Amino acid sequence: MTEHAIPLADAYRGGMRQLAAGVCLITVNHQGQPGGMIATAVTSLSAEPPTLLVCINRNASMFAMLIESGQFSVNVLAADALALVEMFSSSARRHERFNSGQWHTGANGAPLCADSLVTFECRLAQTVDWQTHAIFLGEVTEVRHPRSNVAPLVYYDREFHQLVDIVR
């Protein structure tokens, strides 16, 4: 507990709101069915071999798809991607997700967002179970830079921002 007697879990959540994070769209193709979800728990793990770490809640509709397909892509979103974020964050809009925007199919079969800053195609190398989530280690097999000259979308204090507008 903190000095103000706030329960640790609440203090943790409040503290994590102060950690700005890039916004990614994780995509997968499982048996011809595309899937996607928004994630901020994505980070570089290793350069040799190039590996990303992605944390996903077990309750996410994409969880089983990702495990069973063994492949996924991480699309790092630009500041102008709020419409995609809204669509991929709503389970009610699941059937609409890949009907708008421009999509390509990656070498691993996953949908690639043509408007992303960078896209990493990954082979699932390992899964580590941890409580309500799993940590997916994705060995990067392809990297594409469709729009590396635009501002990234950042999640900070429960809101989405352009990188420049969170500097206070």
UniProtKB/TrEMBL annotation:
Query: Domain of life of the organism in this record?
Result: Bacteria
Task: Tell me the protein's name.
Answer: Flavin reductase family protein
Task: Tell me its family.
Answer: Belongs to the non-flavoprotein flavin reductase family.
Q: Which PANTHER family does the entry link to? A: FLAVIN REDUCTASE (PTHR30466), FLAVIN-DEPENDENT MONOOXYGENASE, REDUCTASE SUBUNIT HSAB (PTHR30466:SF11)
Query: Per its UniProt record, what InterPro entries does this chain match?
Result: Flavin_Rdtase-like_dom, NADH-dep_flavin_reductase, Split_barrel_FMN-bd
Pfam hit, one: Flavin_Reduct
Keywords annotated in UniProt:
Oxidoreductase
Tell me where in this chain the Flavin reductase like domain is found. Answer: 16-162
